[in-house]
């Protein structure tokens, strides 16, 4: 007849884990965690069971007594069926009775990334409107998985979904910041994505995650320095005396980009075929590479002026890298040589560094979309601009151009004052006409 008892092993402070101990009479002893813990003061050393001091401890005591009876019954059945009694057999007994889910290969953090990327993200509902996430989001999770693999090598440990806790979040955050040398916004984005995935694993996939996974701290990082080309600076670029043909082409693409809000990946492939007439209006028609959605952009005068140079079409194409190099030269020729606070990549550290730099050095293809949003803001209704920039909400749009939530109120007040002045002017004209 086997002997089944309980013993406790220290965790931290006054908490102890309760283990079941099985001795089968053949000098073999097997142990298994029950999944229950207890304060040392509540443990009865005579019965090796929880003291009956409150409802919680009474429930634990009853559960352990029932588990012991279950193991005895299964033991008898196992002997009759000539099953092997070993650690695995005891694990099965405890896990089945206590409702403990077995850890599988899928529970490994890196393995769950594979499942989440292939089987969840492509079908995940986006606010009940669309199915699936963008390629950029999938790329983000693939990169995050690579960071976790590097973190496991750094700590010489394998991590499971259940290990992702607030403490894990802080340690991973520290690794990304100090070892990988990533910026706050990038690090914060990775922590938020990891938290989202692990919460999904527990809520939707019924996997065992850490009970405090929802308490993992997330943040957006420091407010980004957002460099733009002002209308005055764009005029200087437009009027600059540039003789080199390649630089002229780069300048023309830059002017188009700053007046269409397009990313370089959507801008440079444009050809004359992208110019179409809809309901009597000439527009640029394209499919946005990031969202896959069709986009129609009005032809502003600044764009038409450039297109006229190329017989109504777009300038000759050039690579993204060449474009970025050339527009810096264009900005330098246009005398954008004054210092401006911004961010530049340090070629030695390969990280962005903040500081004061000549403005021309801060000019890159990323400047075009934000320049459009900033320069046209207030001249046209924000919802119309959002149709071109493809921001989902006005809040996102205002944050993108560093406008506060009260800015639209200021605009409204300005329009009211403007209309009052116009009304006063009309009133004066009417009075003068009456006098005459």
Automatic annotation (TrEMBL):
SUPFAM superfamilies registered for this protein in UniProt: DNA breaking-rejoining enzymes
GO BP term, pick one: DNA integration
GO molecular function: DNA binding
Chain ranges of the Tyr recombinase domain: 224-414
UniProt keyword annotations, A-Z: DNA recombination, DNA-binding
Keyword Cell wall biogenesis/degradation: no
Gene3D superfamilies attached to this UniProt entry: 1.10.150.130, Intergrase catalytic core
Xref: InterPro entries: DNA_brk_join_enz, Integrase-like_cat_sf, Integrase_catalytic, Integrase_recombinase_N, SAM-like_dom, Tyrosine_recombinase_XerCD
Pfam families (UniProt xref): Phage_int_SAM_5, Phage_integrase
PANTHER family, sorted: PHAGE INTEGRASE-RELATED, PROPHAGE INTEGRASE INTD-RELATED
Family of the protein in this entry: Belongs to the 'phage' integrase family.
Protein name (database record): Site-specific recombinase XerD
Organism listed in the record: Mariniphaga anaerophila
Top-level taxonomy: Bacteria, Pseudomonadati, Bacteroidota, Bacteroidia, Marinilabiliales
